[in-house]
Write the structure tokens for this entry.
Amino acid sequence: MKVVLLKEVQGLGAPGTVKEVADGYARNYLLPRKLATPATASALKQVEQMRAAQDRKLARQEEEAAALAQRIEGQEVRFQVRAGDDGRLYGSVTNADVAEVLSRQIGEEVDRRRVVLEEPIHMLGTFEVPVRLSAQHSPIVKVIVEAE
């Protein structure tokens, strides 16, 4: 029996996928649990509409990421922190700190999880930190850590 998956089914596929499954599996498991629906002409048309809407949404998100990447690229984020004589900080500069200052500079919210710091910054200096907005857009921000 051909079915259209409505939800993720492990080992079978993602939502919107058309699969050929055993009749008993469809009747006794997939259909009662609302995980799939029979692959009728109207269901297939609905899947195509869902895919088209998803494609439009992804394209819009990609455009927004590109615009934000242009605004972020080349930004300098400065931190004045307490440090010892050897240049080690008495604390650290984290991705959340970078995201907060960057958000204030560009006037748009930047999620801290987008700022890619493998570990917090514990030394004075200049660091280049990528901000991963999407798979194609990762602008570089210059983080300058100075002593007070």
Summary: Strands lie at 2-5, 18-20, 36-38, 76-81, 88-93, 121-123, 125-130, 140-147. The first helix runs from residue 23 to 30. The chain has three helices and eight strands.
